[in-house]
């Protein structure tokens, strides 16, 4: 009998989800069903010092997700350590033994093996660098995809299993294509032994492609993420079903899921196929794709990142009355250099790469 595996993106439950009957049926028919637990459970730990929002989710989330049928939980992401080691440890405990990508270094980088009717499946999860990454700054957090150990780990892990699935939490948020630097890194993961790479973090769905006969899904977007945005893109996610027969992935079907309030429903197949075709088309033509990414990089620099680089030093890049008032306030009351924000700008790969790309483009215009 073929096996079925389902992967969905980011989950932060601040309300009790209601799943449509067809979505419930889809989850129930899976042998393995995995989601990205994007934030620790509330009630434990203290907020850490970091740049960006601090997020947790309802204590009942672990019970709800397991009741729905999820039986594997990726935790390699940029919010899982928002409430420190205590918050993460409690969250790991609540989800049981089927956690990948976070904890101590041994736990975070470990291979989780599941055997189904004689087929050995291996699972690992990584995230890009961040305040919770195991990058040498801490001994408890999430596995870092660019750690020096990752490539050797994957080569060794592939020898232990029939199918190796790698999940990665990385990318530029709210952008519908992966940047070239992540495309290259995910291909390297295939080269090291991954049979499929499944990614999330941008909070929107991105396209997929085949590399050396193996699939890379660049972002499943959000599955159920409360409290940040109410846009259609934010509330549209991917549910990726793999079918495995005779130790080979023979089918990969991406369903789109729509969140309206607290209700999750599968989107109509025709609408799903149209949306996915548009996303995949953006990856096909190299010159057009590169130009599109460069345009996004410049837009993000002008809208966000130049302010991020000026703010740590109380700099000013906009001369509106509101900006001047904020600048004066910072000069009077916040004179220290914000090293956390500088680290956020320069050490998180997506931020660094998108800024470098923007600067390269803008220099050519001078």
TrEMBL record:
Report the residue ranges that make up the Capsule synthesis protein CapA domain in this protein: 4-227
**SUPFAM superfamilies of this UniProt entry?**
Metallo-dependent phosphatases
Which InterPro entries did the record assign? Capsule_synth_CapA, CW_Biosynth-Accessory, Metallo-depent_PP-like
Q: Name one Pfam family in it.
A: PGA_cap
Q: Which SMART domains match?
A: PGA_cap (SM00854)
Residues spanning the signal sequence: none
Which PANTHER family does the UniProt entry name for this protein?
CAPSULE BIOSYNTHESIS PROTEIN CAPA, POLYGLUTAMINE SYNTHESIS ACCESSORY PROTEIN RV0574C-RELATED
Q: Which family does it belong to?
A: Belongs to the CapA family.
Tell me what this protein is called.
Capsule synthesis protein CapA domain-containing protein
């Amino acid at each position: 009998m073929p096996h079925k595996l389902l992967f969905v993106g980011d989950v932060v439950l601040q309300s009790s989800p209601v799943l449509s009957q067809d979505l419930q049926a889809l989850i129930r028919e899976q042998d393995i069903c995995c989601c990205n637990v994007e934030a620790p459970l509330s009630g434990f730990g203290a907020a850490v010092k970091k740049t960006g929002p601090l997020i947790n989710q309802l204590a009942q989330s672990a019970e709800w997700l397991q009741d729905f049928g999820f039986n594997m939980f990726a935790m390699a992401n940029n919010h899982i350590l928002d409430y420190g080691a205590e918050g993460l440890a409690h969250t790991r405990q609540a989800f049981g033994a089927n956690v990948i990508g976070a904890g101590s270094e041994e736990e975070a980088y470990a291979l989780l093996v599941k055997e189904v009717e004689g087929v050995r499946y291996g699972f690992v999860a990584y995230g890009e660098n961040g305040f919770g990454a195991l990058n040498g700054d801490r001994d408890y957090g999430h596995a870092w995809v660019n750690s020096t150990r990752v490539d050797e780990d994957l080569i060794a892990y592939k020898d232990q299993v029939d199918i190796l699935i790698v999940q990665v939490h990385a990318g530029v948020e709210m952008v519908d294509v992966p940047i070239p630097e992540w495309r290259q890194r995910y291909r390297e993961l295939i080269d090291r032994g991954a049979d499929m790479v499944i990614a999330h973090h941008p909070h929107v769905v991105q396209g997929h492609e085949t590399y050396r006969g193996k699939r890379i899904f660049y972002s499943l977007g959000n599955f159920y993420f409360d409290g940040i945005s109410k846009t259609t893109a934010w509330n549209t996610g991917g549910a990726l079903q793999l079918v495995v027969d005779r130790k080979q992935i023979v089918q990969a079907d991406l369903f789109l899921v729509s969140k309206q309030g607290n209700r999750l429903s599968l989107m109509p197949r025709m609408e799903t196929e149209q949306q996915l075709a548009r996303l995949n088309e953006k990856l096909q033509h190299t010159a057009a794709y590169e130009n599109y990414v460069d345009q996004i990089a410049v837009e993000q620099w002008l809208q966000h990142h130049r302010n991020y680089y000026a703010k740590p030093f109380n700099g000013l890049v906009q001369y509106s009355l509101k900006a001047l008032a904020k600048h004066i306030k910072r000069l009077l009351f916040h004179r220290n250099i914000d090293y956390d924000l500088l680290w956020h700008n320069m050490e998180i790969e997506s931020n660094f790469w998108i800024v470098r790309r923007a600067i390269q483009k803008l220099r050519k215009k001078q």
